[in-house]
Amino acid sequence: MEIGFIGLGKMGFPMARRLVEAGHQLTVFDTRKEAVDKLIEIGAQAASSPKEIADRCETVLASLPSLQASLEVATGTGGVIEGTRVKRFVDLSTVGSQMAVRIHGLLAKRNIVQIDSPVSGGVGGAEKGTLAVMVSGPRADFEVLKPALDVIGKVFFIGEKPGSGQTMKLANNFLSATAMVATSEAVVMGVKSGLDPAVMIDVINAGSGLNTASRDKFPRAVLPRSFDFGFATGLMVKDVRLCLEEMKSLGLSMEVAEAVGRLWEVVIRDMGPESDFTSAIKPIEKAAGVVVGGAKGGSHAAK
Ligand code: NAD
User: Fold this and answer.
1) 31, 64, 94, 174: which to mutate for ligand 1, most atoms within 8 A of CB?
2) What is the CATH number of the domain that holds 30?
3) Which of 102, 158, 166, 265 has its CB 3.0 to 4.6 Å from that of 97, i.e. a possible disulfide?
4) Helical H runs in the chain?
5) At 4, is the pLDDT very low, low, confident or very high (cuts 50, 70, 90)?
6) Its pTM surpasses 0.85
7) Domain range for 296
């Protein structure tokens, strides 16, 4: 099918590439020309603005880094809202339910359907087409979209209520954020007492402590100290803050989430928003005076 795709970053680029490779006709836009050029090389067409994409395609997908970027691309001047052909705007970004509902309301005035479709599974999942895709919006539009979304991952229909795909995604990312800092604390505790972190991770992964941080993030990016998993601390903190807001707006006060939120605020303060989110272990190591992993995957006391 004809698809517009806006935002060709760490997630957007591999998703767009898979759609081109599956035979869909893609028209793409990103503020970074080099990202657009790479997709043109494999058969996509370029557009000069979100509006131009929405003039050419009925279905427009977006994978953008901030709430403001989604709002502007969807509803700003030169945005999707001004397109003459577009019928549906599908947001693959994590923006939280309040922003999704806001965009939904603004687009509805122009008879454009907003569809939540946040994804989980990281850059590796985007490359392999194994993301969890959480869709909410009108059933009929979901049916039109599903064959395309099948190319990027396992597709779940969450419901018709605007924003519910986002609520689902925030619940998921709260768990991912928790796994990262909780596993860091567990491993730092072991290293402080003299345990080998590589052995610890093997044991946890064979035992009941297994989680996505111990299974994926520690072996690939923490123990080798490459800190290059592909998800920025700024994006993780965005999701944790959105989750806390979501809980508050439902009248909930949740203690684990609040503690996890405080820890991530320390991570963004100390490591910066551009750092990889696996750097979350560093402030915890620093407070304990140890370093986990390294060339041998072992441990040593911090200097
Ligand atoms: P990214 O920063 O790598 O990519 C964002 C892209 O959007 C960049 O190419 C940037 O140039 C482009 N962009 C920014 N503003 C724009 C605008 N106004 N118009 C057009 N293009 C614009 O971010 P990412 O890691 O790919 O994340 C994208 C979304 O997916 C975020 O909402 C994030 O929370 C979510 N997400 C990321 C991951 C991950 O592992 N990286 C996993 C799941 C979900």
Assistant:
1) 64
2) 3.40.50.720
3) 166
4) 12-21, 33-41, 50-56, 67-75, 96-108, 122-128, 139-149, 164-192, 197-206, 212, 233-249, 255-271, 281-288
5) very high
6) yes
7) 167-301
